[in-house]
Design brief:
By secondary structure, this protein is α/β, with parallel strands linked by helices. The protein folds into 2 domains: 3-239, Spore Coat Polysaccharide Biosynthesis Protein SpsA, Chain A (Alpha-Beta Complex); 242-326. It is built from 10 helices and 11 strands. The strands form 2 sheets. Strands 3-2-1-4-9-6-10-8 form an 8-stranded mixed beta sheet, with helices on both faces. The protein has a 3-stranded mixed beta sheet with strand order 5-11-7. It starts with 8 loop residues before the first helix and ends with a helix.
């Protein structure tokens, strides 16, 4: 599905290196976030053992990222640095998969920091998996706000904490893309991350991790919730505006539509699905906007914001569904 592995990296990646490769590779894909990258790497380095490493993939950064990454590699033999010139998170993650030596690859966003015991939680889980069908896992995400969020902002919007014990995700479920791990060989065999999803430059596209999780699950593999693997994810002040959040939700809607479009097979079923969703969209958006206005009047701004953001996601879903139905790329 993904052509990134067809140009030389896949064969070498699957063959592996001589000797005993690490069990765990922590992969950090980064672009123009030199200072944040340094924080992310520093949070991981004290947690590394002899059977773990860090792979940094620089996605054509124009700031000090290259020198920051090189500095870590020079100071620590467990850190290796690679570059990916094609812009896009999915293609960069595929480069990380191809270059990783570990049997399992943990993906950490470059604007996140790992809490103590993060690597250990993944390592312990994969070395003694609860099921023979385990292919990946993901853990808790807690926000680290650069600025206190406004009163209308949903405090759960950037948190993922299901608590409890490790358990398999339900079908179509999975962890967040800033904190998850996959078995490298299985991910490569499945084609890696689809470059049709994920952020590219200024694009807010998403769900590249969701798409590969769904392919895993359709193939009979399991993704698991791992509560002990916890990270802190930076939420900059620039993301705490209603305009930015509407852009995010519109883009999420678009990515969700493409996922659903792929899951619906047969010409007639697709036609019925598209017609039903597009007919319902104006009513859904109108209900959300009218309801949101009513919530503003009674000073329930948080509910009003939720309704507005939901309308943006519904609109994005309908927009992308129309493009997919027309074959527009």
């Amino acid at each position: 599905m993904n052509n990134n592995f067809e140009q030389g990296g896949l064969g070498a990646a699957v063959a592996g290196a001589a000797g005993c490769p690490p069990v765990i590779t922590v992969a950090i894909c980064t672009r123009n976030r030199a200072a944040l990258l340094a924080e992310a790497v520093r949070s991981v380095l004290p947690q590394l053992c002899d059977d773990s490493e860090v792979v940094i993939v620089d996605n054509s950064s124009t700031d000090e990222t290259a020198s920051v990454a090189a500095g870590f590699a020079a100071a620590n033999q467990r850190v290796r640095v690679f570059s990916e010139t094609e812009i896009g998170l999915s293609v960069t993650r595929n480069t990380a998969l191809a270059e990783a030596r570990g049997r399992y690859v943990i993906f950490l966003d470059d604007d996140a920091t790992a809490e103590d015991g993060w690597v250990k939680a993944y390592r312990r889980f994969f070395l003694d998996p609860p099921s023979a069908r385990v292919v990946g896992a993901g853990g808790a995400v807690f926000p680290r706000y650069e600025h206190p969020p406004p009163a209308w902002f949903d405090p759960e919007a950037h948190s993922l904490d299901w608590g409890g014990d490790p358990r398999a995700f339900a079908r179509r479920g999975g962890p967040w893309g800033c904190n998850f791990a996959v078995e490298r060989k299985r991910a490569i065999e499945l084609g890696g991350f689809s470059v049709s999803y994920g952020r590219k430059g200024k694009s807010m596209a998403a769900h590249e991790e969701t798409e590969i999780f769904q392919r895993f699950q359709r193939s009979g593999w399991e993704m698991w919730w791992l509560p002990g693997a916890r990270i802190r994810h930076l939420v900059p002040a620039s993301r705490l505006t209603l305009k930015f959040q509407c852009r995010v939700m519109f883009s999420f809607g678009r990515s969700s539509a493409s996922l659903r479009w792929q899951s619906v097979s047969g010409g007639m079923r697709r036609t019925l699905f598209v017609c039903a969703r597009l007919v319902a969209t104006p009513f859904q958006v109108m209900i959300c906007l009218v309801g949101g206005l009513g919530m503003v009047i009674v000073l329930r701004n948080r509910i009003a914001a939720k309704l507005l953001l939901h309308s943006a996601r519904v609109a994005g879903f309908a927009y992308q569904l129309t493009l997919d139905a027309l074959g527009v790329r």
